[in-house]
Design goal:
With about 525 residues, the chain is of the alpha/beta class. Among the domains are: about 160 residues, 3-Layer(aba) Sandwich (Rossmann fold); about 100 residues, GMP Synthetase, Chain A, domain 3 (2-Layer Sandwich), CATH 3.30.300. An eight-stranded mixed β-sheet has the order 2-1-11-10-12-13-14-15, with helices on both faces. Strands 4-3-5-6-7 form a five-stranded parallel β-sheet, sandwiched between helices. Strands 16, 17, 19, 20 and 21 form a five-stranded antiparallel β-sheet that branches. Strand 22 and strand 23 form a beta hairpin. The relative contact order is 0.08.
Amino acid sequence: MNVSALLAANGRKYADKPALVTEEVAVTFSEWNEIASRWAYRLRQLGVEPGDRVVLMLPNCPEFAFFYIAVIRCHALVVPINARSTKEEVRYICQHAQAKALIVHEALVHAVHEWIEEEPGLIAIKTGNSQGAWQGTAAWDAEEDVRLEEFGINPDAPDVTEDSEVSILYTSGTTGRPKGVLYTHRSLLTVAKMMAIELSIQHRSRILQLMPLSHSAPLHLFFISGLMVGATQVMALTFSPKLLLSLVQKQRITHFFGAPVAYLLTMKHPEFAKYDLSSVEYWMYGGAPLSREMAVQLEQAYGRDKLACVYGLTEAGPTGTCLLHREHPDKVGSVGNRGVLFAEVEVVDENGLPVPPGTPGEVRVRGEGSMKGYYNNPEATRETLRDGWIYTGDIGRFDEDGFLWIVDRKKDVMITGGVNVYPKEIEQLLERHPAIAEVAVVGVPHPEWGETVTAYLVLCPDVDAKRDWLAEVRGFLSGHLADYKLPRQVAVIPQLPRNTSGKVLKHVLRESPSAKEVELT
């Protein structure tokens, strides 16, 4: 089996069933299958060869789905990137991946047009009409001279094995340059099957895709899973709380995956209670830490019986663990007590040996959904992929009942006075402060103590930024944390620096001067 063959089979089996639905159009499985083959032919005509890398800079739209399969049918590697990527980010990825072609949505051409004119060797393709150096797709569907046999294009791809390379996803790059995660068909099929079984995704399911399909969880766990079982996928270009609510109600959505912030923003919508969300079978969240307090808030808004936390990372497929709120309501805030189907999870010390319950260590994951390696980066591959295990870089601990709690990112752990301090522990307490909207805690280098615990605050509207926030923060945390964990520097900033995936760029904060410091004694 391979990803192209999934669509070929469902194009025959569910020929007239809606596969891709937007506010404007509904595309059936047979139409998706036919367009993907036709566009694969056009890509080969333009010079895309087997083994080439093709970068997709597309939001969640039918064209994403068409090109995703079309590139695979060229036996090329598909490289989806965030539609909000900057020109420099696109340039870096195209150069690192040695891309043969860049495919961009017509609404995003302005972001990279100037750079494209400097890269004559890169095939530039856009949705809509042709424009200068850009080949447009508008005329492709009207052209009749499509001869798949000319380039050996076979939708069932019988010569493609599960071990064939299929795609590259670039990591978020929160600590530096993003790395390209290389997958095989086996990787994608494994995690898609896992999610379909774990969370009951079936041919009758209706999946809402509002999170960027350039991310591994929405792409592999839900897009590929939906393709595999013949589910209908509802797509929209962007996320907004109102759009989420209205689409769930109108389209009778059964499955939605989102980052925690999507749920937190949506439940604050003034008309939240007016919408009929009863069709949803699973509200799934992951991709960012969620405190127990926030998880309980989600239960109150969305219903305990329908909430599921998924934990994993891009390099692992993603695959890892899953927690159904209804099964373990007393363990909400953890990420579950077992590896999901086809995956094993352990917490180990620096020597790779499992640690006892209650002891923090690095989380590692093993399974057939894992990456083949980092593209063109053997050193990083050896560091992350060892003896079949993906070392996640997350610090976690199992409790006495076997539930895994994520403590922090390994690279974010601060060492002050020779003692480990976990930023997440401080952040989750400060999130309870009524005047603090967002917070990030980092370690700033100090000549004597190693690192200084530093808190960056984003205040709620109309809160006085000139208050003595250092004293207020330390007073608020006093009694909850040991003295050595209390911030010794506090800075009030207008917003936290984030990448296009929405993740906080802590390395940027570490390099910024802090606003205030107390005497280290």
